[in-house]
């Protein structure tokens, strides 16, 4: 069982504003906020590139930390 299978996760959509070092990205969310996010392990493993202006799907941390980019739309 995966952690994502057990819990309800809150996903959101956003647009990449800025690419930062060590695969961190600054995202503009649909609800108007900005958040820092990193690439998920599957995206790193399959070498999926994320560029400025890409629309992405993000799993938000319930405690207010960084988000995790799980899909490029």
Please write out the topology.
Blueprint: H1 3-6, E1 11-20, E2 24-29, E3 34-39, H2 41-45, E4 55-59, E5 67-72
Parallel strand pairs: 3-5
Antiparallel strand pairs: 1-2, 1-4, 2-3, 4-5
- Share of β-strand residues: over 45%
Task: Name the shape in a single word.
Answer: globular
Kindly provide the radius of gyration, computed on alpha-carbon positions and rounded to a whole number of angstroms. Answer: 12 Å
Mean pLDDT: 90
Q: Briefly, what CATH class?
A: Mainly Beta
Structural class of the helices, strands and pairings? mainly beta
The amount of helix comes to: 10-25%
Our count of helices gives 2
Family: Belongs to the IF-1 family.
Domain S1-like: 1-73
Pfam families: eIF-1a
InterPro entries: NA-bd_OB-fold (IPR012340), RNA-binding_domain_S1_IF1 (IPR006196), TIF_IF1 (IPR004368)
Provide a brief overview of the structure.
With 73 residues, the protein is mainly beta. It is 12% helix and 45% strand. The longest helix is centred in the middle third of the chain and has 5 residues, at 41-45.
Description:
It is a single chain. The protein has 73 residues and is mainly beta. The protein has one domain: Nucleic acid-binding proteins (OB fold (Dihydrolipoamide Acetyltransferase, E2P), Beta Barrel), CATH 2.40.50. The chain has two helices and five strands, in the order αβββαββ. A five-stranded mixed β-barrel has the order 1-2-3-5-4. A hairpin with a 3-residue loop joins strand 1 and strand 2. The model has no long low-confidence stretch (mean pLDDT 90).
């Amino acid at each position: 069982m995966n952690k994502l299978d057990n819990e309800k996760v809150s996903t959101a959509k956003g647009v990449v504003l800025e690419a930062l070092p060590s695969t961190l990205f600054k995202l503009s969310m649909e609800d108007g906020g900005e958040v820092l996010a990193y690439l998920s392990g599957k995206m790193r493993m399959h070498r999926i590139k994320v560029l400025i202006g890409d629309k992405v799907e993000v799993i938000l941390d319930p405690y207010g930390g960084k988000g995790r980019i799980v899909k490029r739309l």
